[in-house]
Design a protein that fits this description.
Domain GAF: 92-199
Organism: Frondihabitans australicus
Number of helices: 17
Number of strands: 9
Pfam families: GAF
Number of domains: 2
Protein name: GAF domain-containing protein
CATH topology of the largest domain: Beta-Lactamase
CATH superfamily of the largest domain: GAF domain
Strand content: 5-15%
InterPro entries: GAF, GAF-like_dom_sf
């Protein structure tokens, strides 16, 4: 496979860049993160994380869909024949729109740079889209700087797109192609486009809020309260160390029932959506319990509509209209950034510890394994000892042994670690 070629746009000049892929610290650090994830650079074909028949529904409901016209008007004029692709994806690194030069798009299919594919750094290694999301700022990745061997014939520039109020990441904007994709003017262009998109989102919200305010003046009693709920802020789900989850719309917080806690946690984790049979299996351990599930989903929708109707799950497949910010995803994001101490502080206990739902047990085990492997691979001795003092890590012999090996020979803390290891050996 060869990189696409073309005459290009005047603002995409060919850059000069050192050929050493690890010459830049930001790239070397990204490669280190990929190695900690045990990624194989020879076997990193991105996976289709959104089903082909579900991409349209998902992106139609994503906040970035409102901003697509801005990206098209600022970036896609006269791009045919340039050898360049403009892509936009969600906060999880999944491509939602891939547009631009038709020849380049066909060639990019060989590395699965297509709508629905996942390009998060934790799954495919160093690339502009995934690394921009990890760093939370724009970046350019040229050819050999990619960790993935399959992608080394390409270059790319990407920037994150933020919510204009909360500043949380909504997704990314990317230009991919040959060396012109990392031209000196490409990154400033994408940054300016992202700012324009964020401004457009703010204007759209203000217009919506103005219309909602006008509508509320014509409503009384319960109708007015329901309209006010539509102006809710960022929704969050808290499940760590709790028997029942707490759900907040940014202004109010409610406690869910045990079963509703499981359902919202599962939908938050499986963001692509789940069929009724899949969700029944994960909740009840029985794929045939669809009627029971549907009745429970009706009750869940009624409970959530009192808080914010936009939080109510959609169906076919069951999924959330907008991703929830959960304490589980926050811990994972901190681990991916190498912020181990903050991750341990955020990890306040297992996911819904009393739940026996098969899907919750899988999430609980997955998160625990993710934390443990990340700490053993790269955490400092102080963080290892902090983790060993938690209920999740106080019986972890491997963590204690790793801390013991890292402690200086004359450290006064070695005696305490040895004593705990001896106690575990006696149990």
């Amino acid at each position: 496979m060869t990189a696409p070629t073309g005459t290009g746009n005047p603002w995409l000049a060919t850059p000069s860049r050192p050929v050493d892929p690890l010459a830049r610290r930001v790239v070397a650090e990204s490669w280190e993160r990929a190695q900690r994830h045990r990624l194989d650079p020879e076997r990193l074909l991105p996976q289709l994380e959104l089903p082909e028949d579900g991409v349209d529904d998902y992106r139609r409901e994503h906040p970035l869909s409102l901003l697509l016209p801005v990206a098209r008007s600022l970036l896609l004029n006269d791009i045919e024949g340039s050898g360049l692709i403009v892509a936009m994806g969600d906060e999880h690194g999944r491509l939602l729109w891939v547009e631009g030069d038709s020849s380049a798009k066909r060639q990019a299919e060989d590395m699965r740079f297509v709508e629905g594919a996942g390009w998060a750094e934790s799954r495919v290694g160093t690339s502009a889209p995934g690394t921009a999301l990890v760093l939370d700022h724009g970046i350019q990745i040229q050819g050999e700087e990619h960790f993935n061997t399959l992608v080394k014939q390409w270059s790319c520039t990407a920037v994150p797109i933020h919510d204009p109020v909360s500043r949380r990441i909504l997704g990314f904007l990317d230009i991919t192609g040959d060396e012109r994709a990392v031209g000196p003017h490409t990154l400033p262009l994408l940054e300016a486009t992202a700012r324009a998109m964020e401004s457009e989102l703010m204007v759209t919200r203000l217009r919506t809020r103005t219309r909602s305010t006008g509508a509320r003046t014509r409503l009384t009693g319960g109708a007015a309260a329901e309209a006010a709920a539509g102006a809710a802020g960022t929704a969050t789900l808290t499940t760590l160390g709790r028997d029942v989850a707490q759900l907040s719309d940014g202004r109010r917080t409610i406690s869910l029932s045990a079963r509703h806690s499981e359902l919202m946690t599962l939908l938050s984790w499986h963001r692509r959506g789940l069929s009724a049979e899949e969700l029944a299996q994960l909740t009840y351990g029985d794929a045939g319990a669809v009627l029971t599930l549907r009745a429970e989903m009706v009750r869940l929708r009624h409970a959530l509509e009192a808080l914010d109707p936009r939080l109510a799950p959609l169906s076919r497949p069951y999924r959330l209209l907008s991703p929830l910010q959960s304490d589980v995803s926050r811990v994972i994001a901190l681990l991916d950034r190498g912020a181990h101490r903050r991750a341990i502080e955020a990890y306040t206990g297992p996911v819904l510890p009393n739940s026996t739902a098969p899907g919750i047990e899988e999430i609980r085990e997955s998160l625990g394994t993710r934390i443990r492997e990340s700490l053993l691979a790269d955490a400092s001795v102080e963080v290892l000892l902090d983790y060993a003092s938690t209920t999740s890590g106080d019986t972890d012999r491997d963590v204690l042994m790793a801390a013991l090996q890292m402690l200086p020979p004359r450290s006064p803390r070695r005696a305490g670690v040895v004593a705990r290891l001896e106690l575990l050996d006696r149990l």
